[in-house]
Amino acid sequence: MDDIVSVNLGARSYEVCIGTGLLARAEAQIAPLLRRPRVAVVTDETVGPLHLDALRAGLGQIEMVSLTLPAGESTKSWPHFTRTVEWLLEQKVERKDIVIAFGGGVIGDLVGFAASVLRRGVRFVQIPTTLLAQVDSSVGGKTGINSVVGKNLIGAFHQPTRVLADIDLLGTLAPRDFLAGYGEVAKYGLLGSASFFDWLERNGPALAQGDTALRQEAVRRSVQMKADIVERDETEEGDRALLNLGHTFGHALESATGYSDRLLHGEGVSIGCALAFELSQRLGLCAQEAPSRVRAHLRAMGMKTDLSDIAGDLPDADGLVALMAQDKKVLDGKLRFILARGIGQAFVTSEVPADTLKTLLQDALASRA
Ligand SMILES: NC(=O)c1ccc[n+]([C@@H]2O[C@H](COP(=O)([O-])OP(=O)(O)OC[C@H]3O[C@@H](n4cnc5c(N)ncnc54)[C@H](O)[C@@H]3O)[C@@H](O)[C@H]2O)c1
Ligand SMILES: O=C(O)C(=O)C[C@@H](O)[C@H](O)[C@H](O)COP(=O)(O)O
Ligand SMILES: [Zn+2]
After folding, report:
1. Residue 251 CA: which ligand 1 atom is closest?
2. 247 labeled binding residue
3. What positions does the entry give for Zn(2+) binding (predicted)?
4. Is there an atom of ligand 2 within 6 Å of 240 CB?
5. What are the two backbone dihedrals, phi and then psi, of residue 108, each rounded to the nearest 5 degrees?
6. What is the model's pLDDT at position 369?
7. In whole angstroms, what is the distance from residue 255 CA to residue 259 CA?
8. 200, 297 in Cβ contact below 8 A?
9. Separation CA 107–CA 42 (nearest Å)
10. CB of 140 closer than 6 A to ligand 1?
11. Is 104 in the pocket of ligand 1 (CB under 6 A)?
12. DSSP per residue, 86-130
């Protein structure tokens, strides 16, 4: 049975439909949103060959045109953004049409941003195909691309009109990409729900092995937590920053590794969560057991948790702090972090002494030697 999570944002409200066999039912889900029976779909070179025919079939009487972009984080960049916008214009996508983002977080972020500027804004539907995109990036309306200066620095808030999360699509994911998405799943437990983290400790291995019911439950609980936060604070004036747990570290590491497959986003989040809990403990905010438990679970799942898990050179501690200085949470020139008083008890603070941060990073870098 499908789960429906509503994201209540007044005129920008929408539903996230989570279930199996959704692609085959795409026509029924999307036709009511359309003024004319035509959609423009953007996907990537991995997802396209695997699933585009099934989407076309599922769309039934709805005509579909499609653009296929290269797979991977480097696609979230100006050249592919420009290409996507120009292609949508060539296809004569109108103000009342719908664009479909059919892929992982890279496609979702890029296509959502393209939709936000096309003819000053057209609607888009997210059909997320990775665990990460189903639990996180397809919901909440953050869209954008990377800059050489930093991660996600160019973009817009643009909410989707509907999200269709088909759990079956996760069956073709490479194990590494599945686990990267698990980094964001674990994040939800760590930031706001000790009971969800307990549940993940018990069910994470079976979920990774492919249990569909557990996957659907993990997606539903994650999306519900995200929807609750986004409803309170759509444009990140306050509480929404909680969803950034682990990201100040993670984004700096992604930037340091050139947005390459040396480090996937969800892997950076996993390492970043471990560092955020370690920092919390060093500042006396949480007990020693908390960071140990975080690392133990992520480790048990086969996740990256340490800087030594990243191959190749990294900047020194000052270099990493300089990369963090581009974070969008910086206020009056001061970094803000998401720290925790325990598992499920995260909060936002700018009170992190520079020397504690530097020592933490130096120690983490030393573990690579
Ligand atoms: N907007 C947000 O709120 C938000 C939240 C979290 C992450 N993000 C962004 O999301 C991006 C990461 O997303 P991601 O992890 O989905 O990466 P991704 O989109 O690069 O997908 C990962 C890999 O999986 C492949 N893939 C996708 N679906 C597949 C399937 N069903 N079967 C087989 N292969 C498949 C892709 O081709 C790609 O190679 C980052 O850019 C991150 O910044 C955005
Ligand atoms: O939706 C949010 O808010 C998040 O922070 C979710 C994050 O997982 C995601 O990676 C987001 O793109 C990061 O946002 P940013 O504003 O730090 O770029
Ligand atoms: Zn993220």
Report:
1. 43
2. yes
3. 184, 247, 265
4. yes
5. -60, -45
6. 73
7. 6
8. yes
9. 7
10. yes
11. yes
12. HHHHHTT--TT-EEEEEESHHHHHHHHHHHHHGGG--EEEEEE-S
- The residue-averaged pLDDT of 222-241 equals 97
Which stretches within 233-316 are classed as H helix? 247-256, 265-282, 289-300
Tokens of 175: 């194990």
Q: Read off the pLDDT of residues 41-56 as tens digits, 9 standing for 90 and up.
A: 999 999 999 999 999 9
Question: Which residue is listed with tokens 């370690």?
Answer: 278
pLDDT value for 296:
98
Average confidence score pLDDT of the chain: 97
Instruction: State the distance from the centre of ligand 2 to the C-alpha of 142, rounded, in angstroms.
Output: 7
Catalytic residue numbers, as ranges: 120, 142, 184, 226, 236, 240, 244, 247, 251, 265
pLDDT number for residue 101: 99
Asked if the interface predicted TM-score (ipTM) of this complex is over 0.85, the answer is: yes
What is the arithmetic mean of pLDDT over 146-174? 97
H or E element in which residue 321 lies: helix 317-324
pLDDT of residue 235: 98
Q: Is 107 in the pocket of ligand 1 (CB under 6 A)?
A: yes
| Predicted confidence (pLDDT) per residue in 332-365, tens digit | 999 999 999 999 999 999 999 999 999 999 999 9
- Across 226-251, average pLDDT: 97
Element (H, E) at 62: none
Whole-number Å distance, alpha carbon 301 to ligand 2 midpoint, is 23
| Shortest-distance atom of ligand 2 to CA 184 | 8
> Does residue 309 register a pLDDT over 80?
yes
Give pairs for 281-285: CB < 8 Å, separation 24+: 282/356, 282/359, 282/360, 283/339, 283/352, 283/356, 285/339, 285/340, 285/341
Is residue 368 scored above 90 in pLDDT? no
